[in-house]
Write a structure and sequence with these properties.
Blueprint lengths: L6 E3 L2 H12 L6 E5 L11 H8 L4 E5 L1 H11 L10 E4 L4 H4 L6 E2 L6 H30 L1 E12 L2 E6 L4 E5 L18 E7 L6 E5 L6 H9 L3 E10 L3 E7 L2 E6 L15 E9 L2 E6 L30 H12 L8 H32 L13 H16 L15 E2 L3 H10 L5 H13 L11 E2 L16 E6 L8 E7 L5 E8 L6
Parallel strand pairs: 1-3, 2-3, 8-10, 16-20
Antiparallel strand pairs: 2-4, 4-5, 6-7, 6-9, 7-8, 9-10, 11-12, 11-14, 12-13, 14-15, 17-18, 18-19, 19-20
Helix pairs in contact: 2-5, 7-8, 9-11
Length: 512
């Protein structure tokens, strides 16, 4: 097999050239992908790796025999496993500490994930190397302010200073593992050192980011925001999400819920985030999200929503399946071995398809809260009570209804329906959203969802809790989180525990 994007090592001569490259301490990082014994192509998509990293690395494919030659040359601890990949930094430190050369396993059920891990590892290696040489480069260049002119590839950006001198910025200097279009945008300004001026293009090394991502995240969230986050790890009871590459947030399952059915590692999900006692608190949301937080101040959103279109296998997967039906059998190879090889390729393609379909189903499961309840009562209050009951049955699973029971009685204030209709007419919130939060309040679920921020309603901003002559106390709940004109629900809690829905409105109008 040959590759148009990688250096292929299959002969002793090619291997010797590869070893010379590996020994060069001034080179770029080397990404080695090994072809497993008995396979004609790598399990890791080398074209996907090339698309992510381009010429920021040397990309090498080792045939099965060459993988054994490498083990003989550098030792088992520094070699690459059969069928795996390894990223070798410049220098020779990795020979004494193999951990400096990350190993990446193939991921048959999600081929894209292995590519992403290689890109992250390669960018991290390059970032460390760049950090070591920043001081040296600074002495041969000049410190200046540059403006992003163009994004030419996932790893390269053209910048220019005030004197129109241009340079290339390699994105691993900023944040390893993210494509340029998710880090910078045209017109964005960066400070750093421009070297090599006088050539067609110099090289720009940005200053290390002096940033407080958590502080910016709190400012970004403000009074609350519905936005995007990426799942970093998921267990049945909780999901660790990234609002920013350095700002984790957590979603916790309620009761016996299993979050692994709703989200998987790498999914981009919509979340509602609020600040509670200085901490970022999140829940899944089916509202339309605002753009994700930028990685760097003034930059573009670092995430985009997962595409809603039906899953289609990537081109490498299709080719793998085609190869399964046309793979030539080597002379002398047993028929059953060839059949197993073909079946393995076919199953890998099927697994990739299944994963794409599962991702769609997880998104549908997270969005199942969105209901459309038809009008069945002419009386407005009767229709409201019907919609509240349907929302409760839909969103509270049967196993959770003992913990969150529907109240035998509850009240609807004389102005509640009027305020609900007025708030919906004013725009910015759907009727079903209000119904869903009211149902959560009535069954007690809102009180355990931090993002709802159930708190006493006070007469003034820092005054006492409002009370009525019958002893009822006023409470307020977030209906929606926005930086301006966030919607709120106010309700009364009677001495016997019964709830009366009072009215909904905008917090600037008194519902604080």
């Amino acid at each position: 097999m040959t590759s148009t994007v990688a250096q292929h090592v299959a002969t002793k001569t090619e291997f010797q050239r590869f070893v010379e490259l590996l020994d060069d301490t001034e080179r770029r990082p080397v990404v080695v992908i090994s072809i497993a014994q008995g396979r004609s192509r790598p399990a890791i998509d080398e074209r996907g790796v090339h698309a992510e990293l381009e010429d920021s690395v040397h990309l090498v494919l080792l045939c099965p025999e060459a993988t054994f030659w490498l083990t003989d040359r550098v030792g088992k601890g520094c070699s690459v496993h059969s069928g795996w990949a390894r990223v070798y930094p410049a220098g020779s430190e990795w020979r004494a500490d193999p951990r400096l050369a990350p190993l990446i396993a193939p991921t048959p059920s999600n081929p894209r994930r292995a590519v992403e891990r290689i890109a992250e590892a390669a960018n991290a290696v390059a970032f460390r190397e760049a950090a070591r040489h920043v001081e040296q480069r600074s002495s041969s260049g000049r410190h200046c302010l540059v403006t992003v002119q163009d994004i030419v590839s996932p790893v390269q950006v053209i910048v220019a200073d005030e004197e129109k001198a241009q340079g290339i910025l390699r994105t691993y200097h900023l944040v390893p593992g993210l494509p340029a279009e998710r880090l910078v945008k045209k017109g964005q300004q960066l400070s750093g050192v421009l070297t090599g001026v006088g050539r067609l293009l110099g090289e720009f090394v940005p200053d290390p980011p002096r940033d407080d991502p958590h502080g910016r995240a709190v400012e970004f969230v403000g009074d609350g925001v519905v936005t995007l986050a990426r799942a970093e790890s998921v267990t049945p009871g909780s999901a660790r999400l990234l609002l920013h590459p350095r700002v984790p947030i957590q979603v916790t399952a309620l009761g016996e819920g299993d979050l692994t059915k709703e989200v998987a590692e790498g999914d981009v999900v919509t979340v509602e985030v609020v600040v509670v006692d200085g901490e970022l608190v999140a829940t899944f949301s089916d509202e339309a999200p605002q753009p994700a937080m930028p990685v760097l101040p003034g930059g573009p959103p670092w995430l985009e929503p997962d595409p809603p279109k039906a899953f289609e296998p990537d081109e490498p997967e299709l080719e793998a399946e085609q190869e399964a039906t046309s793979l030539p059998r080597d002379l002398g190879e047993a028929d059953e071995v060839a059949a197993l090889r073909e079946e393995n390729v076919r199953l890998e393609a099927e697994l990739a398809r299944a994963r794409g379909e599962n991702r769609q189903l997880r998104g549908e499961l997270r969005s199942r809260r969105a209901l459309v309840v038809p009008p069945v009562f002419s009386d407005g209050v009767a229709q409201l009570r019907f919609e509240l009951w349907i929302s409760y049955l839909t969103h509270i699973e049967e196993g959770q209804r003992e913990r969150f029971p529907w109240p035998e009685t509850y009240g609807v204030g004389p102005h509640f329906l009027e305020s609900l209709e007025a708030l919906v007419r004013s725009g910015g919130i759907k009727r079903q959203r209000i119904i869903d939060v009211c149902a959560e309040v009535l069954c007690g679920r809102a009180q355990v969802i931090a993002a709802r921020a159930v708190k006493p309603w006070t007469v003034t901003e820092h005054g006492k809790q409002a009370t009525r002559s019958d002893g009822a106390v006023a409470m307020r709940v977030r209906l929606q989180t926005e930086s301006a004109a966030a919607r709120r629900l106010r309700y009364w809690k009677l001495p016997n525990g019964e709830i009366e829905l009072d009215r909904v409105g905008v917090h600037d109008e008194g519902l604080t």
